[in-house]
Amino acid sequence: MNLPCMNCKKEVEEGQGKFFAQVYVCPSCHEQAQHFHNRLVRELNFLLVMAKESIRLALVQSKFSFPEGPAGEPSKEQVLKEILLMEERRDRLAREQATCTASTGSTKPNAPTPDLLSAADDASLHKHSPRG
Ligand SMILES: [Zn+2]
Questions:
Q1: What percent of the chain has pLDDT over 90?
Q2: How far does residue 10's CA lie from ligand 1's centre (Å)?
Q3: Distance of CA 30 from the midpoint of ligand 1 (Å)
Q4: Torsion of CA 92, 116, 46, 27, to 10 degrees
Q5: What does pTM read for this prediction?
Q6: Is the Cα torsion angle 108, 113, 115, 116 positive or negative in sign?
Q7: Is 30 exposed, middle or buried (0-12, 13-18, 19+ CB in 10 A)?
Q8: Which residue of 51, 100, 106, 120 has the fewest C-beta atoms within 10 A of its own C-beta?
Q9: What are the φ/ψ torsions at residue 114 (nearest 5 degrees)?
Q10: How far is the CA of 116 from the centre of ligand 1 (A)?
């Protein structure tokens, strides 16, 4: 008896099933999950590089100070927003400089915002407004 894919519920042929994060799935669902995960890893790695670069720039310009939030340290939201702003600025610069570097194959000027970031944004917008 063959087990079904936990995601799409289709029956998985024997020997074809795969695990993604300990979840038994069909090859198709596995490929999609893996693909999405790889993309997020790339995006997050890029954000890490950007974050480090911004700190490096601030340090060499003698402008670095630890950004203090309400709890004495920056919230994840704050950090993500800072990084997004930096990304926008860099994006604009890149477009202004617009040299012939058409090697990525991507024609879209803006990468889709990862779900992580929009989720963080939602959280910040989620305010209780007084009755009115
Ligand atoms: Zn499946």
A1: 41
A2: 6
A3: 7
A4: -120
A5: 0.48
A6: positive
A7: buried
A8: 100
A9: -60, 150
A10: 24
